[in-house]
Amino acid sequence: MSTIVYENVGVTYESNGHQAIKNLNLTINSGEIISFIGPSGCGKSTALNVAAGLIEPSLGAFKVDDEIITKPGTDRGVVFQNYSLFPWMSNLENVRFALAQKADLPKKALIERAKELLDKVGIKGKSQHVYPSKVSGGMQQRVAIARMFALDSPIFLMDEPFAAVDEITRKHLQQLLLDLWEKEKSRKTIVLVTHNIEEAIYLSDRVIVLHEGEAILAKEITFKRPRNRQSLEADTEYLTIRNQLLEAIEGKV
Ligand SMILES: Nc1ncnc2c1ncn2[C@@H]1O[C@H](COP(=O)(O)OP(=O)(O)OP(=O)(O)O)[C@@H](O)[C@H]1O
After folding, report:
1. Which of 23-32, 80-89, 102-111 has the lowest mean pLDDT?
2. Do the domain assignments include residue 36?
3. Ligand 1 binding pocket includes 17 (Cβ within 6 Å)
4. Residue of 160, 168, 178, 215 with fewest CB within 10 Å of its CB?
5. Transmembrane residues, as ranges (predicted)?
6. Residue 72 to residue 78: CA distance in whole angstroms
7. Mean pLDDT of 234-248
């Protein structure tokens, strides 16, 4: 069980007095996938950082299973835009270290498992053994995703996790995430920040549109799973939802 609640959450940055989140009320059920979407600066990352425990709400409370959260914890795995890998560890060590937090396995088994996870996200061979700074941003993003899978927390918080990768890799990683989510009995609760409407619809049970810090639309996405990208995109309901979200993002609701 990992139910997330934003209870009248407001965030004002002290440095400039900017009210980035205004009175956000949102319950995310255990095992649900939601996306925050909206124009640049609408408060998506701020909302996710509250969930990560990196920003304390100025008003209201953020809770996981009724417990008020004010700091990061191993119950929440994160992938941020800036990858947040340990720069002094190789890509493989980053993932092995995460695995070691969870599994009491001999070092050799941890390394094998870390290699498997990196293979899955397409980081193979020599790229596994170099420091994160020696590979591209897109590759670092994949290592960060492998590390999040390794940590295996009940909650995944992901800020534009597929932004720095090419379109084919993006689709592959989206599928990997869904496969992992769908096969688990006790499903992860996933909160995603994205600029990409198609990605939000394809992955989510609900899409929350933020505008100037306010949640102006919470759209349920009820297409049954597993979803097929092509038939989804040909569905008239899909196009209606897409337009509705687009209008909300553009501030027309
Ligand atoms: N540390 C900070 N101090 C002051 N203002 C901030 C800080 N971080 C964000 N802001 C401001 O708060 C607002 C919301 O920022 P946030 O990064 O949450 O938006 P976003 O929707 O994630 O944007 P983007 O899509 O461009 O990443 C913006 O106006 C931003 O300039």
Report:
1. 80-89
2. yes
3. no
4. 168
5. none
6. 10
7. 96
| Domain-embedded: residue 106 | no
Amino acid sitting at position 157:
L
DSSP state of 125: G
Domain count, the chain: 1
**249's tokens:** 């993002």
- Residue labelled with tokens 């498992």: 113
Q: Which residues contact 51 (CB under 8 A, 6 or more apart)?
A: 4, 62, 69, 76, 155, 157, 191
Q: How many residues does the chain have?
A: 253
Q: pLDDT by residue (tens digit) across 52-103?
A: 999 999 999 999 999 999 999 989 999 987 767 999 999 999 999 999 988 7
The reply to whether 15 falls in a domain is yes
Residue whose CA is at the smallest distance from ligand 1 atom 25: 40
- CB 83 within 8 Å of CB 132: yes
| DSSP for residue 190 | E
Q: b/e map of 237-247 (b: 16 or more CB within 10 Å)?
A: ebeebeebbee
Q: Which backbone phi and psi does 207 adopt, to 5 degrees?
A: -115, 125
Residue bearing the bigger pLDDT, 103 or 112: 112
What is the span of the domain harbouring residue 237?
1-72+196-253
pLDDT score, position 180 = 85
**CA angle, 138 as apex, 116 and 242 as ends, to 5°?**
105
Pairing of strands 155-159, 76-79: parallel
Ligand 1 contact via 99 beta carbon (within 6 Å)? no
> What is the value of ipTM here, to two decimals?
0.98
CATH, residue 46: 3.40.50.300
Please provide residue 116's backbone torsions phi and psi, each rounded to the nearest 5 degrees: -60, -45
CA distance 38 to 89: 35
